[in-house]
Amino acid sequence: MFFRVAFALLPFIGRALSQQTAAPYVDPDNGITFYGLTDAVHHVTYGITFPPASRGSTEFIGEIVAPIDAKWVGFAPGGAMINNLLLVAWVNNGQIVRSNRKATDYLQPIAYQGPILTDLPSTKVNSTHWKWVYRCQNCTVWDTGSIDTNSGGPTGWAYSSVGVDNPADPQSTFLEHTDFSLYGRNFADAHASADDYDRWAAGGTGGGSGTTTPTTTTTTTQGPITSGIPYDYVVVGAGPAGIITADRLSEAGKKVLLVERGGPSTWETGGTYGPDWLKGSQLTKFDVPGLFESMFSDSNSFWWCKDINVFAGCLVGGGTSINGALYWYPPDIDFSPSQGWPTSWQNHHTWTNKMIARLPATDHPSTDGKRYLEQVFDVVSTLLKGQSYQQITINDNPDYKDHVFGYSAYDFVGGKRGGPVATYLRTAKARKNFTMKMYTMVTGVVRKGSTITGVRTNDTSLGPDGVIPLNPKGRVILSGGSFGSPRILFQSGIGPTDMLNIVKADPTQGPRMPAQSAWINLPVGENVSDNPSINLVFTHPSVDAYDNWANIQTNPRSADTKQYLASQSGVFAQASPRLNFWRAYAGSDQKTRYLQGTARPGAASWNTTFPFNQTQIFTITAYLSTGITSRGRIGIDAAVQPRVLTNPWFEDPVDKAVLIQGLKDIVSNIKSVPGMTMITPDNQTTIDAYVNNYPVADMNSNHWVGPCSIGNSQSNAVVDQNTKVFGTDNLFVLDASILPAIPMGNPHGAIMAAAEQGVAKILALSGGP
Ligand SMILES: Cc1cc2nc3c(=O)[nH]c(=O)nc-3n(C[C@H](O)[C@H](O)[C@H](O)COP(=O)(O)OP(=O)(O)OC[C@H]3O[C@@H](n4cnc5c(N)ncnc54)[C@H](O)[C@@H]3O)c2cc1C
Ligand SMILES: *[C@@H]1O[C@H](CO)[C@@H](O)[C@H](O)[C@H]1NC(C)=O
Ligand SMILES: *[C@@H]1O[C@H](CO)[C@@H](O)[C@H](O)[C@H]1NC(C)=O
Ligand SMILES: *[C@@H]1O[C@H](CO)[C@@H](O)[C@H](O)[C@H]1NC(C)=O
Ligand SMILES: *[C@@H]1O[C@H](CO)[C@@H](O)[C@H](O)[C@H]1NC(C)=O
Ligand SMILES: *[C@@H]1O[C@H](CO)[C@@H](O)[C@H](O)[C@H]1NC(C)=O
Ligand SMILES: *[C@@H]1O[C@H](CO)[C@@H](O)[C@H](O)[C@H]1NC(C)=O
Ligand SMILES: *[C@@H]1O[C@H](CO)[C@@H](O)[C@H](O)[C@H]1NC(C)=O
Ligand SMILES: *[C@@H]1O[C@H](CO)[C@@H](O)[C@H](O)[C@H]1NC(C)=O
Question: Hey, what's the signal peptide range on this chain (predicted)?
């Protein structure tokens, strides 16, 4: 991803793991039957109950019960953070302080008029906990949305271990939450009887005789299945790497199952979701390149993996169905031993060319061949020419990455999101021996020592206990991405002991793990990298910021939508970036590091005290790529949800120094471009101060690679040169997680070229089906 900044609150894209599903419970203090859960990490309980559905009422009763070290807690019954009711509470001087708020962007949520909050008598603060029990009237409908009290969906919470700025003030500002999550629920199960509800709403207690009963949810085991259909190859995850892998395996005549936890994306995959202006067009939000920016502002963002707290796509196409689709052919250095690749990977051109043959890049995606909204290109190219940069067609010269700029390149096809879904997946689906299973979560592989015998899923129709069997000599390939694949390995008893012990302690996953004597100790999750990135925000009188992309869904410019619907041309045929550039730097440690720049109209945030014209804003994001030395760690939390354990940005101060130098160089000649003004950082803030104060998580580029690095030895790698997991006979990883270092550009081109090469090596490896 690029340039997404959240200053106060990140979106509620949390987790909805199987065991994190709401269920009815009775609060022992007040006897109210609530519907909700206690989160596994912070032990905060969130409960809600509605009046009978027949009333069509807009109120509910809720509670938050938190250990005393919870400094503030938020609850979003509607799930998404934007344009949804948020209830926030904390303790001040032994009293609960609370407010209802709403956020219109991923910024500080603010008060809004409408809801009527009444604290109920069982609200209390004792030495170990605080508890807020409340009635919320006029709370399920508001100007920009509503909660459907009869349907399933996500509910969100936010937690902070850092106190608010002014605890006495219910409208106090506060910093971004320190954790947040989503959990699954069905409000149809959360209605009380009329008598109970009215008594509780009036402050009464007990007697939960309503439609909800205090039971705990149990997973239902379905009727006996003697055996499932076996496959030659099971590929886990329909992201770019998994799709290419499954396509090439089925092309070779193997019987292949591709398992994906999410659902459809583009129209051809069965997707239907999109703004009203696409109705009747056989196009979805995922098909239209120009809707990319709305991925971050849509309140119904079902495409994010809800159990991962950074952006990750959980739908057919994985990241390539929701990303900016910037697409770079890999330079030689992306597969060189200097970056950690085994020497057998160096001759990448054979495989890169196979990828290009299937999916060529374009830097003019509009079907009429014209370029639109090019003012940012013009302004930034003037700036860069003043620094001796040369304009090239970037993908014509993949190895040329110093002092060059060019038009942004994409893998859009015919003015639509193309990528692996519109190419490789299409050919795979046409084959009889290819099957794709959506909405199926893989929770581990079943193994006897070093041999994998099946793939465990949550779908009992695929085999006994949800286990998909393999044909003799069958193989499993994990392509779940840099967060998905490590978790599957941990759940299969493969990884560092600290992570495996977390799985072992989990009541659901623990008993399914192989015995401790069969654990395979590999550095899964170590040595992870992602580009550190910093945004600079500017204005220029010529620039059309396209209303900062705010209206593209609900109030788009009608000439542009008409043009797009008629011929897939115009502004909507491209994502937001307009220009990319690269420059090489020598660090004080004598190592070469490359800086990539991406320029686009609009900005995710700004910070200046001077007035400026919002219609003219644009952003340059500067990322440090090949050569960065900082590394981080990916693992799981106590609820077995993928998490960043150690941030990978600026761990090495030389990375930081080089990026600061690069930012200073970018604006070194800004005065030579008439009318170009930098508004963030503004002229009262130095670049050094700006970078020093930059919120760490905002450096995230969502280009995670490396947790299952390829290498020659199991002391510092997880997969061998054939992508086989060390210590196993028939388990492979093939996705972003095997890349030992960050590629030169936004990574999915390099990841797909790696998939082409990796699957060829797997097919060539003896011992398979
Ligand atoms: C917001 C955003 C913008 C980006 N912009 C760009 C860009 O412009 N250009 C670029 O090159 N890169 C971009 N990226 C990065 C790029 O999309 C990823 O690097 C790439 O998609 C990784 O591919 P992958 O196949 O390794 O994994 P993914 O794309 O993450 O795919 C993994 C798939 O596996 C599935 N899965 C995971 N676990 C399981 C399980 N247990 N059971 C079943 N299925 C599972 C997931 O649902 C997903 O579909 C962006 C990423 C994000 C998040
Ligand atoms: C209910 O809330 C809305 C705003 O969402 C407000 O306009 C309306 O006046 C409120 N109604 C009552 C009865 O308070
Ligand atoms: C404080 O209240 C909580 C929530 O009702 C309860 O679980 C806990 O036992 C109480 N602690 C003490 C010390 O009474
Ligand atoms: C898979 O398909 C190929 C070509 O379509 C065919 O030759 C092969 O026999 C099939 N294999 C299986 C296992 O069905
Ligand atoms: C399995 O998990 C997926 C992804 O979370 C979910 O959509 C699906 O409904 C689950 N299937 C079953 C049978 O529980
Ligand atoms: C905004 O700028 C001011 C002044 O430079 C700085 O103190 C503050 O930390 C900045 N805020 C953010 C969120 O970057
Ligand atoms: C802001 O910029 C737009 C477009 O360049 C221009 O039409 C408008 O007059 C400007 N507004 C102000 C207040 O300067
Ligand atoms: C700083 O920038 C503001 C607005 O862009 C401008 O009005 C002001 O004159 C500038 N100050 C200096 C010292 O350059
Ligand atoms: C991490 O990478 C460094 C080089 O970048 C290497 O020396 C080290 O062995 C790796 N460690 C692990 C655990 O992979």
Answer: 1-18
The answer to whether the beta carbons of residues 289 and 321 sit under 8 Å apart is: no
| Length of the chain, in residues | 769
Strands 256-259 and 434-437, bridge-based pairing: parallel
Whether 364 is catalytic is: no
Distance between alpha carbon 728 and the CA centroid of its chain, in Å? 30
CATH of domain 228-362+416-521+706-769: 3.50.50.60
CB 616 near ligand 7, within 6 Å: yes
Q: Full-prediction pTM beyond 0.85?
A: no
Q: Using CA atoms, how far apart are residues 502 and 519, in angstroms rounded to an integer?
A: 13
Q: What is the pLDDT of residue 106?
A: 62
Query: Would you give the DSSP letter of residue 108?
Result: -
| DSSP state at residue 514 | P
d(CA 363, CA 393): 8
Spatial CA neighbour of 286 closest among 301, 308, 299: 301
Q: Which CATH class is domain 363-408+532-624+650-699?
A: alpha beta
Considering the domain 2-216 in this protein, what is its CATH number?
Answer: 2.60.40.1210
Closest CA to 482 of 754, 232, 688, 679: 754
Q: What residue has token string 């303790």?
A: 91
Measured in angstroms, how far is the CA atom of residue 170 from the centroid of ligand 2?
20
H, E, C per residue of 225-290: CCCCCCEEEEEECCCHHHHHHHHHHHHCCCCEEEECCCECCCHHHCCCCCCHHHCCCCCCCCCCHH
The residues facing 35 across adjacent strands are 24, 48
pLDDT of residue 216: 34
Per-residue pLDDT tens digits for 164-173: 988 988 888 8
DSSP class of residue 63 equals: E
% of the chain with per-residue pLDDT over 90: 77
Q: Which of 687, 693, 694, 699 to mutate to test the pocket of ligand 6 (most atoms within 8 A of CB)?
A: 693
**Token pair listed for 466:** 């949800």
Mean pLDDT over all residues of the chain? 91
Q: Give the residue, by CA position, lying nearest to ligand 2 atom 6.
A: 114
In this structure, the residues whose C-beta lies within 6 A of any atom of ligand 6 are 7, 607, 685, 693
Neighbours of 162 (CB within 10 A): 12
For the chain, the domains span 2-216, 228-362+416-521+706-769, 363-408+532-624+650-699
3-state DSSP assignment of residue 696? helix
What stretches of 147-292 show up as alpha helix (H) in DSSP? 194-201, 240-251
Pairing of strands 390-391, 404-407: parallel
